[in-house]
Amino acid sequence: MSIEVAPTERAADRGREVLAEAAEAEHRRRHRERVHLWLGTTGLGIAILLFWQFGIQYLVNPRYVSDPVSITARIGELLADGEIIEHLTVTLTEAALGFLIGAALGLLSAFALAQTRRGYEVFEPFLIGFYSIPKIALAPLFILWFGLGYTPKIIMAALLVYFIVFVNSVTGIREVSPGLLQVCRVFGASRRDLLLKIVLPSAAPAVVASIRITFTRAIEGAVLSEFVASTQGLGYLVARASRAFDIETVFAGILIIAAVVMAANGLLRLCESRLMPWQTGRVHG
């Protein structure tokens, strides 16, 4: 005795097969894209290193650019004697403290001022005026006021972080639809409900993106201050080597700074994609 399968069951089975095939095809496509991206990035990196090693001498005096092999050897020496770890620890400590202080102050002031349009409009001209000042011009003043220790570097890092977090947080808050807020008020939403359930989720993409990119700015602020006057840190290492015409150490310090920034940015981007997969990443600054 044969059992006849209903047409609806056959259609459902076929639908599941089509969905499985489409999912598998999409998985293969993404895998191919990742492979192509990895191959392209690796190939470009190898080409740059080969040109730097063998071709740059025809454009620039090799004494002023060194070469990847010599720079790699110098990095190994700095790691072996522990000097680079000491300077790296100082710079990351300054950048991390400046990042935390700047991000916290930026978020607090943004949510405080964005609640009242007049408050932000009063503050905005001073913000724009202070933001337009080249921050490197402030570094000597901070060092005169606070000495050669951690404090001026932390303040410089916090300033670079503060403005970006503040501007993007205010932008995200002010882009919340006024109509949506009015409707929620009509339905009895309290000020706390509006902030926690409407304003914060709407502003979250801009806030998270700005926080992600500002850690690199914090490192930039710490290194800039170390360039001006310091006795420790990666900026001090590069400045000291530059004055001594030690090109290998200059490039070693620059590459280490770049590697740290790239690693931090990649880690923060990974956290962002895990926490907010819908994030577009648009940010000002």
- Structural category: mainly alpha
CATH names the topology of the largest domain as: MetI-like fold
Proportion of residues in extended strands:
under 5%
Count of DSSP-assigned helices: 10
CATH architecture of the largest domain, by name, is Orthogonal Bundle
Order of helices and strands: HHHHHHHHHH
Distance between the termini: 74 Å
Fraction of helical residues = over 70%
Tally of DSSP β-strands: 0
List the uncertain runs: none
How many distinct folded domains?
2
CATH class of the largest domain: Mainly Alpha
Mean pLDDT: 78
What is the approximate shape? flat
For the record, what is the CATH homologous superfamily label of the largest domain? MetI-like
Largest sheet: none
C-alpha Rg (nearest Å): 26 Å
Helix-strand layout with pairing:
Blueprint lengths: L6 H48 L13 H13 L2 H31 L3 H15 L3 H12 L3 H25 L3 H9 L4 H38 L5 H10 L3 H29 L10
Helix pairs in contact: 2-10, 3-6, 3-8, 3-9, 5-6, 5-8, 6-8, 8-9, 8-10, 9-10
Subcellular location: Cell membrane
Membrane topology: Multi-pass membrane protein
Protein name: ABC transporter permease
Q: In a nutshell, what does this entry contain?
A:
Keywords: Cell membrane, Membrane, Transmembrane, Transmembrane helix, Transport. The chain is an all-alpha fold and about 280 residues long. The chain is built from ten helices and no strands.
